[in-house]
Design goal:
With 309 residues, the protein is α/β, with parallel strands linked by helices. The protein is built from 10 helices and 8 strands. It has one domain: Ureohydrolase domain (Arginase, Chain A). 53% of the residues are buried.
Length: 309
């Protein structure tokens, strides 16, 4: 990952979440110094600004609890187009925005990999699997559906763009999971997604769990997309998220994962999602997420200055 051409894309999306604030995420990452942090590591950074969707169209689905479905479809199309183009030019880094943005990023990246004859893998770092379909969600918050959609599961009807290259569920590894609805648990089990919840991390540590997945990706010669949700982290260190779940990853566990990902040289794209600056404390979550992205791109433990909050 030396001298990578990083393509920074903002995705100010909050329609998939249950509360406002995530639309400010891309600006917060820039304010926290994400572009400069990457440049200081020797990478080229092209900030293409914030993605904007085209107009929405009228979409109807049988599940009446769905919220902002036209917006979800419009954002998915716009993000997919921007991420696909960015992947042609380098490593897309998508700064969100709630996790519904992954419906666009993951499908675009899977399509790109398929067109280039490469297997595609996803490392999903999140408290939630986001594996609901439109049929199974009871909250109607569509940031809980992107991985089911990208995996080509039934239950979306004609409401969303057709997925041309569904992600193989056995190419998905989810870590940090600790809040799963019954319908999601059933779908994850039936489809063979690898799920390492926080109990597995407590029992085994992150190293053997992640190493096994990275070895699989390397053996296949695959592209690896990392989707990092703020609520993967413990809310004590990352409060700026509307979906806090106690017992998340620690500072050191998160940095260790990022450092291992960098050492692997396998990561080809990155999502940074669910940052809600409205809920932050003096920017600490934005700075931590920026620091984690820097770790993934090569920053080392000994590079870290003392920080005073």
């Amino acid at each position: 990952m030396e001298n990578t051409n990083c393509i920074l894309l903002g995705a100010p999306v909050e329609s998939g979440a249950g509360r406002g604030g995530c639309a400010m995420g891309p600006a917060a990452y820039r304010t926290a110094g994400l572009p400069d942090a990457l440049r200081e590591l020797g990478h080229r950074v092209e900030d293409r600004g914030d993605i904007r969707p085209a107009g929405t169209r009228n979409i109807v689905h049988g599940n009446t609890v769905l919220k902002a479905l036209p917006e979800y479809a419009a954002w998915t199309e716009a993000i997919a187009e921007a991420v696909y183009e960015a992947r042609n030019d380098g490593m897309p880094i998508l700064a969100g925005g709630d996790h519904s943005i992954a419906a666009g990023s993951v499908t675009a990246l899977a399509r790109h990999a398929a067109e280039n004859g490469r297997p595609f893998f996803v490392l999903w770092l999140d408290a939630h699997p986001d594996f609901h379909t439109f049929d199974t969600t009871t909250s109607g918050n569509l940031h809980g559906t992107p991985m089911a959609y990208a995996s080509g599961l039934k239950g979306f009807g004609d409401a969303m763009p057709k997925v041309s290259a569904p992600v193989k569920p056995d190419n998905i590894c989810m870590m940090g999971i600790r809040s799963v609805d019954p319908a999601e648990r059933k779908a994850l089990s039936e489809n063979g997604v690898t799920v390492h919840d926080m109990r597995a991390i407590d029992e085994h540590g992150v190293v053997p769990l992640l190493r096994a997945f990275l070895e699989t990706v390397e053996a296949a010669g695959g592209d690896l997309h990392v989707s990092l949700d703020v609520d993967f982290l413990d809310p004590a260190i990352a409060p700026a998220v509307g979906t806090t779940v106690p017992g998340g990853a620690s500072f050191r566990e998160a940095h260790l994962i990022m450092e291992m990902l960098h050492d692997s040289g396998l990561v080809t794209s990155l999502d940074l999602v669910e940052l809600n600056p409205f809920l932050d404390e003096r920017g600490r979550t934005a700075m931590l997420m920026t620091d984690l992205a820097a770790s993934l791109m090569g920053k080392r433990v000994m590079d870290r200055p003392t920080r005073s909050f």
